Amino acid sequence: MSLQIYNVLTRRKEPFVPLVEGQVGIYVCGPTVYDHAHLGHAKTYVSFDVVVRWLRYSGYKVRYVQNITDVGHLLDDGEDRIIRGAKRERVEPMEIVERYMRSYFEDMDALGVQRPNISPRASAHIPEQIEMIKALIAKGHAYEVNGSVYFSVESYPEYGKLSGRRIEEMEAGSRVAVREEKRHPMDFALWIRAPENHILKWPSPWGWGYPGWHIECSAMSTKYLGATFDIHGGGIDNIFPHNECEIAQSECAHGAPFARYWMLTGSLLVNGVKMSKSLGNFRTIKDALQSYRPEALRFFILSNKYSSPADYSDESLQAATKGWERLHNTWRRAQEALKSPDTLAHSDHSTAEMTSNLLETLDQYRLKFVSAMNDDFNTPLAIGALQDMSTDLNRWLDKGIATPKVVEQALEIYHSFGSEVLGLLRGEAQQSGSAEREAALIEMLIELRAQARRARDFAAADAIRDRLAKLGVILEDTPQGTRWRITNVN
User: Which secondary structure element, helix H or strand E, spans residue 268, and what is its range?
Assistant: First the structure.
């Protein structure tokens, strides 16, 4: 089955056909960097990380653009979030930006999220935003009042087509207080006149000011992907007004369709309420990583459909940890088995039919995974295929019927899908230096334990085993040697 994507714009699942054969342009609304990222951000960016990974696995050349908002994203009271953060920590606004942009990328790196091809910053693209505003004014879609510029929603009859809202049904001032100078309550700011003491401001044809929040994404996405591009992503909470305004100003400025496929992630919920900083019900990614492995956090996120809401709790993360451990430990067991071929069935005439049957079963799991991912990136079903394969592989290893060829094919599936696509199994090339050191230290302690046992110093051997168990490393003594697996210690 070819790739199908649920397009929020058309409200139906559609075959994915890129504008340029073999190439994909994707833009995802990035973070506003005024504080540490939380698990709600992780849900969106891990989800799109897998979308991009699958597109590349499928043979597409992908240009992935994800912006950094460092100006213009206003709070409900009209204050810029960056300036609020700067006041909170008593530093310059751009110091806040640098601090939390680095923090965001640290979190994404820890979660195994691959960096976008381009991460443009709003403040570095003020000229592009001004030029777009000038074009909107020239075409009659925007107007200037007292140094501020507003988009006229009545000039664009399709306003509301993404969210399904009608102008006459929309409440005035959905995010900030309605300015009396606007012609229509739903008109939104493209450029905002800056008060004399405002820090973040730039010169423009309309005086000193700063861009509205929405214009940055239109200016940067079209600069790097063209007036019309393939996929626009983000969180469902930004569908209105942000994404709606992006479409309106982009299509009016360029006279062409904006993004062709719209993919929006469901929210992360806490007791049924969206996780957010404003509600104070959030958990930062850094805090969560103190208690859970990054792969377990990815497993939790990907166990839910990207477009569906997910309920966060410690219980759900603990369950995800156990699910990841089962997958990881079977993967490690297969690696160890291949290193000890004497533990596997011999590949000869007597095992040929059995091997063929097992390889065919593995092919079925491969097809199930591909089918799930091509069905609108259905990661829960894709993970399920790997879990079912792991159950069979463990059974085959227990019975001694797995040949080296069978284990090799299983490991190739783990590598291609569990590692390269889902990012759940980190191979040596993907592991951080600390992860490599962790594995090497465990192997060293296992060898020290073996030496203690040979010297009949069982107290020392038991102490090593017990200390490792407290750290979440379980040792299993088998006739072929000692295996180790990790488990949750929470």
Answer: strand 268-270
